[in-house]
Amino acid sequence: MKIVGVGCGPGMLTEMAIVVISGADLIYGSGRAIEMVRPHIREGCKVREIQDYRSLGTLPDHAVILSTGDPMLAGLGYLPGEVIPGVSSLQLAAARLHISLVKVSVVLAHGRDHSHATEKTLLELSRGKVVFLVPDPKFSVPDLAKALVPGYLAFTMVVLENLGYPDERILMGTPDNPPRPASDLFSLVIGDI
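Above: the chain's sequence. Below: its structure in token form.
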């Protein structure tokens, strides 16, 4: 089985990903991932939208599983098989904001306890890191900002919505005046940037 990162938005496929997708006989992915790669799917390939993520490990060896972004960043890279990386939201955010990746610490708040993500964010900021936070749609930027107000007022908070898409937006703020995402598809960068 191959787990292929399709990038965080249109046009973010690697050449290797295109080769694997265009040669596949069986592809599984989310609706969004399938639409992003549709021009590269060959005629006759069976394409299935993922209904049950828990059963992905039981797919046949020749299956190609699409993972949005990079499978190793909150993606499907935990599955057995070869991983073909894609351009992640982390890479694109760092490029848009001119932040060196060596300064960045990743915090996941996607499907996880949000208070844990807040604690981890505070820890990483205290270590001098810039935090790249991967949230789920229910994550509250204002709640995180409240936790930052006592000691991190000078830091910048950046909401990056729909990265890589034509309607991409980058909203900047501070802990006492945080940016507010209007989309469910966003990431967050916090720190001295």
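The domain at 2-87 is CATH 3.40.1010.10 (Cobalt-precorrin-4 Transmethylase; domain 1).
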